[in-house]
Write a structure and sequence with these properties.
The chain is an alpha+beta fold and 178 residues long. The chain is built from four helices and five strands. It has helices at residues 26-41, 125-138, 149-165, 169-172; strands at residues 46-48, 58-61, 71-89, 99-112, 118-124. The longest helix has 17 residues, at 149-165. Bound molecules: ligand GNR and nickel (II) ion.
Length: 178
């Protein structure tokens, strides 16, 4: 398995959109496995292909405490959403920063599994928020887009500075808060 390089804000490649997956082959499976490996190594609860510079609509998630319940969602779509909440979010592409974001607490969504079979499911709480966060990545959107321009610019500046100085400690911080 390969550790993939996670792009950091304000890298413009995070603004690219993922294309719908049309072919369910070994290559797709290998990308999904490498993304899960990278997500677990980074202590994240989710990862979108766009974050590792692959422009397809593929996300992996594991919100379980034991880190043994991987979800692979291909071409995920939110069908309905309910109950607005504020959720404190972090992102592996914005290491070390956390801000409250407006999300929905309950969603219905559809997706294809790694074999190309279509499914529909519902989610709430952390899983629902995580799916919304990951689908945003597939549309070139980041959680910092929901906060004030001033806060976002400050984060961009700090990350640029850290990047240029090669700060290792920020990458080790755990991005989830539950
Ligand atoms: O690890 C992650 N934690 C998290 C916490 C609150 C809301 C969303 C997330 S997703 C994030 C991993 C990530 O950046 N996925 O794109
Ligand atoms: Ni993210």
């Amino acid at each position: 398995m390969k550790l993939l390089n996670i792009l950091h804000y304000p890298d413009n490649r995070l603004r690219k959109k993922g294309q719908n997956v049309a072919i369910y082959d070994d290559n797709l499976n290998i990308i999904a496995m490498n993304m899960l490996h990278t997500m677990y190594e980074s202590k994240g609860i989710g990862l979108a292909a766009v974050q590792v510079d692959i422009q397809i609509r593929l996300i992996v998630i594991d919100i379980s405490e034991d880190r043994n319940q991987p979800l692979i969602l291909v071409n995920p779509v939110i069908i309905s959403k309910e109950e607005e909440i504020k959720f404190d979010e972090g992102c592996l592409s914005v290491p070390g920063f956390y801000e409250p974001v407006d999300r929905f607490n309950q969603i219905k969504y559809s997706f294809f599994d790694i074999n190309g079979l279509k499914h529909e499911d519902s989610a709430e709480g952390l899983l629902a928020v995580c799916i919304q966060h990951e689908i945003d990545h597939l549309d070139g959107k980041l959680f910092v887009d929901y906060i004030s321009d001033i806060k976002r610019d400050r984060i961009a500046k700090k990350l640029k500075k850290q990047e240029s100085q090669g700060v290792a400690s920020v990458r080790k911080k755990v991005p989830y808060s539950i």
